[in-house]
């Protein structure tokens, strides 16, 4: 049965900026060490690399994979935004990933009464694709790091995997 696999990608923006410096090379960002990226999915969707930058996601033909990115500060100090997906190997195994935006109502903390959360409408942004054939996909995500005022600090990329099976 097909399913949706959500991939949460938390990026250590401070360490990346300290180690690789600030740059504005949107067309050719440097490849960073995967140790600065933390990818998480449910345990049933892990081939290997849970909570690391080389997560190999397990999927079945017909599944939808959705990626969401955040900085470790959740945008308080820096924010990161994916801007380009590059398939290195196995491009034909998935539909072309694209960015999507939707409006959702989410519960948020209520400091006046912590047992009664408030609700807030927010834009929900993610990248998604559908798995089409069996095999392994190697890809890059290019992303930018911005400061809290929205100023570009730098652009970078790294390369995880997707393993697609028949069952």
From TrEMBL:
Record-linked InterPro entries: PixA-like_sf (IPR038712), Uncharacterised_PixA/AidA (IPR021087)
Pfam families membership: PixA (PF12306)
Gene3D superfamilies: Inclusion body protein (2.60.40.3910)
Organism lineage: Bacteria, Pseudomonadati, Pseudomonadota, Betaproteobacteria, Burkholderiales
Record-given protein name: Inclusion body protein
Superkingdom, taxonomy of origin: Bacteria
């Amino acid at each position: 049965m097909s399913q949706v696999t959500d991939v949460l990608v938390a990026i250590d923006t401070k360490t990346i900026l300290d180690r690789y410096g600030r740059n504005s090379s949107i067309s050719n960002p440097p490849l960073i060490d995967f140790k600065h990226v933390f990818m998480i999915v449910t345990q049933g969707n892990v081939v290997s690399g849970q909570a690391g930058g080389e997560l190999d996601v397990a999927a079945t033909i017909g599944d939808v994979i959705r990626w969401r990115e955040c900085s470790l500060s959740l945008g308080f100090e820096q924010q990161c935004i994916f801007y380009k997906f590059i398939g290195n190997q196995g491009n034909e195994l998935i539909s072309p990933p694209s960015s999507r935006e939707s409006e959702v109502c989410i519960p948020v903390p209520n400091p006046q009464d912590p047992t009664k959360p408030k609700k807030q409408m927010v834009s929900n942004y993610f990248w998604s694709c559908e798995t089409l054939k069996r095999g392994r996909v190697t890809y890059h995500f290019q992303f930018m790091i911005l400061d809290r005022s929205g100023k570009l600090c730098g652009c970078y990329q790294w390369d995880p995997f997707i393993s697609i099976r028949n069952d």
